[in-house]
């Protein structure tokens, strides 16, 4: 059996052999699935990250990161990894680099989303909920105006693959922590998410809603205690 082009380390449960709820890991696996790049998935418990990760990620302990098996090169940070793959494999399906694709929702995740989750009931919560909604509406309006099924037009681009995991987290996390659902009037956004969830790249990199709910409960609890 041929060696995979990359080994990638992503959030998950090694004991259960289940993929975890990291949207940046999700983005990278979807990117490799869409481009047809072979990879071997290694699951890491985010609470038990080994120190050797710092040695291959310039002193950082973060996921995802990956090793290029042919060259031994280590890569980390999905904002750097995705465009690297676009340059490395120009003959494979073109996804485009982030700066070549529609620039929408840049303040959405984590900024506006986290502001809302950590907001205090009352005026603070209302203000930050509206700021999140306006950012989501800008994404919706871009899709609606384009009249195309994806940010990339008739097929996905880097924006689709970066945005979809984040919207999944926003939809589930906002409901879990604040009891707030993404409004149905954002029709183009909901329809786009429906199309994304039907893609093979999404299905092959699926992780459960419960992992997302548990993840945001833990993160909000930890951040609230640190304040």
Descriptive terms for the model:
single chain, 227 residues, alpha+beta, 9 helices
Unreliable stretches: none
What is the string of SSEs from the N terminus onward?
EEHEHEEHHHHHHH
Average of pLDDT: 95
Shape: globular
Strand fraction equals 5-15%
Largest sheet: 5 strands, mixed
Structural class: alpha+beta
- What portion of residues is helical? 40-55%
Query: Radius of gyration, rounded?
Result: 18 Å
The termini sit apart by: 51 Å
Question: What would you say this structure looks like, in words?
Answer:
The chain is α+β, with helices and mostly antiparallel strands and 227 residues long. The protein is 52% helix and 11% strand. It has 9 helices and 5 strands; from the N terminus they run E-E-H-E-H-E-E-H-H-H-H-H-H-H. It has helices at 23-35, 52-56, 78-88, 108-117, 123-146, 158-178, 187-197, 200-203, 209-226; strands spanning 6-13, 18-19, 39-44, 65-68, 73-76. Strands 1, 2, 3, 4 and 5 form a 5-stranded mixed β-sheet that branches. A hairpin with a 4-residue loop joins strand 1 (6-13) and strand 2. Helix 4 runs antiparallel to helix 5 and helix 4 (108-117) packs parallel to helix 6. The longest helix is centred in the middle third of the chain and has 24 residues, at 123-146.
């Amino acid at each position: 059996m041929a060696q995979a082009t990359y080994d990638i380390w992503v959030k998950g449960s090694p004991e259960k052999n289940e993929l975890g709820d990291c949207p940046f890991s999700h983005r990278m696996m979807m990117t490799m699935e869409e481009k047809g790049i072979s990879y071997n998935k290694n699951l890491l418990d985010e609470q038990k990250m080994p120190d050797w990760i710092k040695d291959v990620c310039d002193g950082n302990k973060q996921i995802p990161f990956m090793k290029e098996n042919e060259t031994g090169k280590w890569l980390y940070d999905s904002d750097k990894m995705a465009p690297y793959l676009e340059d490395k494999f120009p003959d494979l399906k073109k996804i485009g680099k982030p700066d070549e694709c529609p620039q929408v929702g840049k303040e959405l995740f984590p900024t506006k989303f986290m502001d809302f989750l950590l907001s205090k009931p009352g005026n603070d919560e209302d203000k930050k909920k509206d700021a999140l909604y306006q950012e989501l509406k800008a994404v919706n309006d871009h899709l609606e105006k384009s009249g195309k099924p994806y940010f990339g037009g008739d097929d996905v681009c880097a924006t689709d693959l970066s945005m979809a995991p984040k919207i999944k987290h926003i939809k589930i996390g906002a409901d879990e922590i604040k009891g707030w659902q993404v409004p149905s009037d954002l029709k183009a956004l909901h329809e786009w998410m429906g199309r994304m969830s039907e893609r093979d790249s999404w299905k092959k990199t699926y992780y459960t809603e419960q992992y997302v709910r548990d993840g945001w409960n833990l993160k909000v609890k930890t951040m609230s205690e640190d304040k």
